[in-house]
Amino acid sequence: MPATIFAQGFQVNLQGQKQIGMAGAGAGTAMDGATLFFNPGAMVMLKENQINLGVSPLLFKSAFLKAGSNQVEHNKNEVAPPFEAYAVFGPKSGKIKFGIGAYTPFGGLVNWGNQWSGKYSLISLNLKAIYIQPTISVKLTDNIGLGAGFVYNHGSVNLQRAIPITKPDGSDSKATLDGSGEGYGWNAGIYFKTLSGVTIGIVHRSKVDTKLNNGDATFDVPTALQAGFPTKFNSSLPLPATTSLGFGFYPSQKTTIAFDANWVHWSVYKNLEFDYDNNARVADTKSPRNYSDGASLKLGINQQQTDKLALRAGVGYAFTPVKDGYVTPEAPDANRLILSAGLGYNFTSKFNLDLSFLYEGIESRKQTNLESNLSGTFKTNVYIPGIGLSYKF
Fold first, then answer.
1. Per residue in 284-296, pLDDT tens?
2. Quick one: how far is CA 87 from the chain centroid?
3. Does residue 377 lie in a domain region?
C-alpha cells in the first residue's frame, strides 16, 4: 500500500477498549462485543452473549506559532468523551447472532479562545457523530461468518468564530452556528478462519451524509447592525466510508496478534458549506477542504498472562487527509504516530474490566491556509485513557 495516501482528519478510532489497547486493530479478530463495529461478520464467532460498555476521555493538546512571531498559543483544555456500548445475543454456538451498538466514530472538540491570532478562522468547534447500529451475523460454515448492520447517525455541531466588526465595548463581534441532524448508512463484513489458523476480515463501512437543517445562527454584533443578519442555516457533512483488511495471528493459545490496514474515503469532503436564511449582510459560505483518500496501518498484541490477566500493546501510523494549503484550526492535522497499551482483568468468568491508554503524536506542520491566509506552525498531541466493563451471559 503506497505511503503517499492519507487518513485521519476528525475520525475517532475509539470503538472498543480491547482494540484500543492494540492500537485500534480488530477487523480480523473476534474478541468481544466491539466486533459489531470492527467486523459484523466475526460477531457470530463469539462464543458467548455479552454486553460491553466503555468510555475514552480524550484530551487534545495543540499549539500554534504564528509566522513571524515567537509567542506560542495553546488551545484550551477540554475533554471529549467518546463512548461505546454493545449488546450481542443469540443461541450459543449457533448459526446466527444479533447485536446492537452505539459508538462515536467521528467528532472534534477544540477551543482556541477569542483572543488568539486565528480567531477570525475559528474560536471553537464541538462536533459529535453518534452512530446506532443494529446488526445481524450469520455463520455460513464453521470457518466463514458474514454480517451486516444498518447505521443511523445523530450528528451535532457548534462552531464559533470572531467577526472583524468592533462592538461598543471594543471587543470583536462573534458568529455562533449550532445545529443537529441525521444520516444513514451501513456496515458489512466477512470473516474467514483459514486452515493455517490465520483469521482474515474484510469490512466496509459506508459513507454517511449527515444533513443539518434549520440550525441556529447567532450573530453577536452591534445592535444597529443586527437587522439583516441570518438566524438560521442549513448544512451537510459527508462522513467518509472506510474499507478495512484485517488479519489475526495466533502463535500460541495465549497470544493474539492483530494487523489492520484501513482505507478511508476522505475525498468526499470537498467543502464546508453553510446556507443562510438571510443573505442581506452575510453571503452563503463555501470553504474548500479538498481532503484526499487515505490509509492507516495498525499492529497490536494481546497476551493472556493468566486466566484472569491479559496485557495488550500496539503501534500504528496514520497519514493526514489534509492537503497543504487546507490545514485549519478546526483540524490542525498531520501524519501521526499511534502508541497504545492496555490490560484486561476477569473478576469472574462473566464480569470483566478493560483499561487502555492511547497516545497520538501528530507531527509539526507549517502551513498557510489558502482561504484565510492564516500562516504558522501547528503541533498537536492527543492523550486518551479508557475504561470498559463487560458482562457475559
1. 989 999 999 888 9
2. 21
3. yes
